[in-house]
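quick one before i forget lol
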Amino acid sequence: MKEGRQELHESRLATTDEKGNRVYIHPEDINGKWKDRRSYFYWFLISIYLVLPWIYVDGKQWILLNIPKREFTIFGNVFYGHDGPLLFFLVLGFIILMAFITSLWGRVWCGWACPQTVFIHSLFLKVERLIEGNSRKRKALDKQEWNFEKLWKRTIKWVFYLIISLHIVHSFLGYFVGTRRLFWITMESPSAHWSLFITMLVMTGIILFDFGWFKEQFCIIACPYGRFQSVAMDNNSMIVAYDYNRGEPRRAKDVPKDKEGDCINCNHCVKSCPTGIDIRRGTQLECIACTMCIDACDNIMTKLKKPTGLIKYTTENELTGKPKPKFQIRSFIYLIILFIVGAGLIFSLSSRSELKAQILRSSSTPYQIIKRQDSDPLVVNQLRLKISQNTKNKEKLLVKLDPSVVGIELTIPYEVIEMEEDNFQTPVFFKFSKVILDNGTKTIKLNITNTEDKIIKTLEVDLVGPIR
């Protein structure tokens, strides 16, 4: 008898043959309530992905991750490279949130929200079915020798894959470059933006390879979340599972009719699985909780006029007859940590200064000497002033020496600094006689004020010069 996917040894993947070569999975297209729910949710997520970078508030992109400037706008809040704790809280909060969700609902991320699943099931598989036909026709086309039919079908399919991949990548780059700027960049020659053009090509190649060819192999081999979920889950976490007690023994020639369980061994659940597993073998690493097997089994149970739910959302404890506890310690611990991280983020945001300023050394020499004929030489320090202002209505700023500072001349290119953007940089020059130095250094105060002469920020500046 020919070995089927459902009869494989437990240590062997359904996506490989006995020699280790890849076996391509062509899941059957199943209709059902869970597929409808997932489809609506997938398109909701895709719409958010495509629309979000085009949302502008007060002329600024609502989400923009400007890496070269180290400026990150997230839902209108601007973070900078020096806002390390805030970014740390955001990243840590996402990780803990994923752990909390996994502890309650298992691999719901994989089946319902992972970009890999969303784009492949909503776009790539639909294109494949439209051009190459249903599961049986696609399998036949795979086995078929290369001829005109196979060539034109595969060519058209990959052309559509390329168009979709380009759109996904350009939308992704919009989050980093800016959608309006990216639009005008695409109107120019690639030679005007070689680095961005090459980045786009590389990313498109990766998406095309992953979503178009690698597909379920990424979930099985490369995705770290599949390994992480085994740590975050326990016997009370929600899983897609086969009800062994109700389904066994399955229909077979050697099983009496009055002893049969509800499973008729039609293997419809296996044929519909996008990763090729047999859900009846229990919880497996390759399962992405996409619910295709639930719809497949429910359709068969409905035709047989038996209750649905032979494969369903449940927990390991519920399958063995144990009640699911209302209170789960693991989930509660994750929730407490999540609240702590959230409180830390809120505190950091509330204590964040509306105006930040730094005075930095320039990349040139620490100081220069300007010789004068009739007077002592002057020492010049060139520094760089960086100002970031997070307020919606930005004030006009002035930079002045503190009244306590004497014998020092400040030169700055701007009499009044108008903060048109959140970040501003300018060189500043300090001229003074070396006699004011104490062992080659002197610390002075520099005030940043508004036009009403109200001090907003005071900086300490260390001047350097020759040791007398």
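fyi The CA atoms of residues 62 and 309 lie 44 Å apart.
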